[in-house]
Amino acid sequence: MKRQAVKDCGNCHKVRLVSAKSFQRISMAAFARKCLLLAFVLLAARPGAAKAASAKGPLKVCEKNPRYFTDGSGKAIYLTGSHTWSNLVDIGRGDPPPRFDFTAYLDWMQRLNHNFIRLFRWELVTWSIHSVAPHPWARTGPGKVLDGKPRFDLKKFNQAYFDRLRSRVIAARDRGIYVSVMLFEGWGVQFAPRGWESHPFHRDNNINAIDGDLNGDGKGLEIYTLDEPAITALQKAYVRNVIDTVNDLDNVLYEISSEAHWQSTEWQYHMINFIRNYEKGKPKQHVVGMTWQYRGGKNSTLFESPADWVSPNPKGGYKNNPPVADGRKVVINDTDHLWGIGGKQAWVWKSFLRGHNPIFMDPYKGVVLGKRFDPKFDPIRRSMGYALKYANRMNLVDMIPRNDLASSKYCLANPGSEYLVYLPFWRSVTVDLSAASGPLSVEWFNPTKGATIKGKKTIGGGKRKFTAPFTGGAVLYIFRAER
Fold it and tell me: Of all helices (H) and strands (E), which one includes residue 428?
């Protein structure tokens, strides 16, 4: 990818004598520049526009606490946030589809204190009544595709797609937001109306004689297998170009495919290893994820994979009573694979306190699916940001799920130092503070109202009962008084 270098001015330090009139013009110009600079600073200080702390290095699995990533700083990095379907390619009614306002999206995420985006790929040229653009390959023709535009040349990349990818990852980085780059999207071919007919690998849609429907059943699912080497080679060329585009950026993760069919296992494992091998020769290496294969996929396939992180299906309680994360993989618990669009505030805290990283499939402005900024999901959006504040405030690298320490069974703890407890329904909870000694500070947080209430100090050395000063879901934070 070509990049332009900015040349240093070698004469900027030189001083020359000027007349009084010239000096006055220069002074006025300097004054104007200062005014412009002040205006820029004030603009940058508007709500949601402040630059957040950037990553200190690419994420890797935290050895000390492998439920989380770390950036090389020694801290555990907790990931959470809203993602939506059109945050990379434009999707919507009209041709071309309405352009997604990525800056406004980042402003919105910052106001909610989110730090993670799943950057969505859509492989088809249409989605029901929606058109989709841009795509990774050039549309050169001859001939036309289902959407009436020229056919794809799968040997030529569309640089505009990769420029957009890079610019959006950089924009997110400058806000302190991590980005999972989705490489493929397997749901559309299976379930979108005329899905296979609008895929670039359909024989009528490219000029390269590529036909992904190897068995002739009209579905084309074989593109997510290793059955046709020519197709795998094209996919690898595309993946290489993605990596070349963003490899130098620290805030990158990769996801192989969203909800490809269950027979895609071997192909997904192969692609994970391909990325690892290719990045070995690159300046930076990034973590790779595998998400639920819809339909028919098993969570065991994810946990047995070579992936660094996974997003499971509802089996095992990930919707209502998430299992304790055991550190085999970093778990990004995604409502997309649990409800599609759904979830409740309690799910955020249950996931957090069981050692997972919850993210939300958000209708956002409702352009693709759902209602515009549907208020019923505001509690989820807000609680993800609240949970991140606690994750950053605590020494998360030493916190592990300890259901046995709280009667509510939701507790992250570094016994003797910090305890974060969630009460889904009950006002009272008993917490085992036997490992602690001396005075401990107590804090209540009401996630429904976003309110923090200071509690009465307690003493370690045994089990203690606490009662929330409000009804509904409650968060209890107990920590050493000298903190």
Answer: strand 428-432
Architecture of the structural domain at 402-480: Sandwich (2.60)
Distances, alpha carbon 94 to alpha carbons 44, 127, 324, 367, 372, in Å? 33, 12, 46, 11, 18
How far apart CA 188 and CA 254 sit, in angstroms, is 19
Distances (CA, A) of 244 to 269, 295, 354: 21, 32, 36
**DSSP state at residue 406:** B
Give residue limits of the domains in the chain.
60-398, 402-480
- Residue 381 Cα distances to 112, 154, 360, 450, 477, angstroms: 7, 39, 8, 12, 21
Question: Over the range 305-337, which residues count as b (16 or more CB within 10 Å of their CB) and which as e?
Answer: bebbbbbbbeeeebbeebbebeeebbbbbbbbb
- For the chain, residues with pLDDT lower than 70 are 1-54, 482-483
Q: How long a stretch of residues is the chain? A: 483
Q: CA 398, CA 53: separation in Å to the nearest integer?
A: 22
**For residues 159 and 84, what is the distance between their CA atoms, to the nearest angstrom?**
23
Pairing of β 252-258 and β 288-291:
parallel
Q: CB of 388 within 8 A of CB of 78?
A: yes
d(C-alpha 152, C-alpha 135), whole Å: 9
Determine the pLDDT at residue 54: 63
Question: What pLDDT is attached to residue 129?
Answer: 86
Residue 379 in contact with residue 345, Cβ under 8 Å?
yes
- Of residues 477, 483, 395, 387, the one with CA closest to residue 429: 477
Whole-number Å distance between alpha carbons of 408 and 476: 11
For residue 432 the two structure tokens come to 């085992």
Residue 142: asked if its preceding bond is cis (omega within 30°), the reply is yes
Write down the pTM of the prediction: 0.88
- Nearest partner of 189 among 256, 127, 267, judged by Cα: 127
Torsion 446-452-453-458 (CA) sign: positive
Architecture of domain 60-398: Alpha-Beta Barrel (3.20)
